[in-house]
Amino acid sequence: MPAPGKATINDIARLAAVSKKTVSRVINNSPLVRPDTREKIQSLMKQLGYAPDPQARGLAFRRSFLIGLVYDNPTAQYIVNMQYGALDALRDSGYELVVHPCDSHREDYIDGIRRFALQQKLHGVILIPRVSEDDQLAAALREIDVRYVRIASIPLDEPANMLHTQDRLAGVEAANYLQSLGHRQLGLITGPRRYRSSIERGGGFRHGLAQRGIELAEDYVFEGGYTFESGVAGAEYLLAKSPRPTAIFACNDEMAAGVYKAAMRRGLSIPADLSVVGYDDSPLATQLWPALSTIHSPIRDLGRQAAQMLLAPEPEDGDAPAEPVSVTPHLVVRDSSQRPPA
What's the CATH code of the domain at 119? Predict the structure, then answer.
């Protein structure tokens, strides 16, 4: 043990069995340290007569009080709800939210996010689909020592870095519901193939139908873009089929709204002639007429939980592994679905 008055920040960290960053946070009265750890470090500093120098104090300020929200998602309402949730968690914490849209089609998009994190000295980053599904991006953030939480439809990382949305289960529930109403001629409008959420939602829907002996033919599946316009295009394609689907599952609410427009153009009544089920339960679902039956995904809660995970103290050596965090979507039945016409 060093002589009184001779200890360094490295000595304090070693004797307390914590990182130098944790000691620096205690020095700067950061709230992101557990009370028992804070007490142990303060006791050691007092016992050894440790007085922090300016360089040690500066360590805590290598990170700002900023949380980043990074997205490449065409659904505006999804982004807004996610921001509201994150802001709910950050209120009165001293932290602020900064938003960074990106284009994951660009070859240099990861470099752009890396620059954003370094320039803003981010405390942590919330990654939402589709960027959350990129393992190379997660690796880049680990390389520059920036914490992150990935929101995704399947587990892709350590539990401490993941929020799992279980989209496949929701797709199965939509299939079971429509089949229970008696629908056997169905159509599916997915999101972009490169989105894991699209794969999981559509795959769950097809699996749910298959479990009940209904095979969804490939030509009754349309790849949309999670946009209103692609919902219109998908519905026009499906409704031109013979036999025509009596129900369509659209993998987000904006595409479901597009189905409404295409049905209206063809003089079809929802739900008398065509049942429609969406996904997200965004405000749009209750603004449509008739109100949309849809899968409720707790988007605002996801934003709140992700921000809370970043505000929590970092795990220390010897801590028990983090428990997996997931949410369970569920069907909300409204007025856009009923039994098929006789």
Answer: 3.40.50.2300
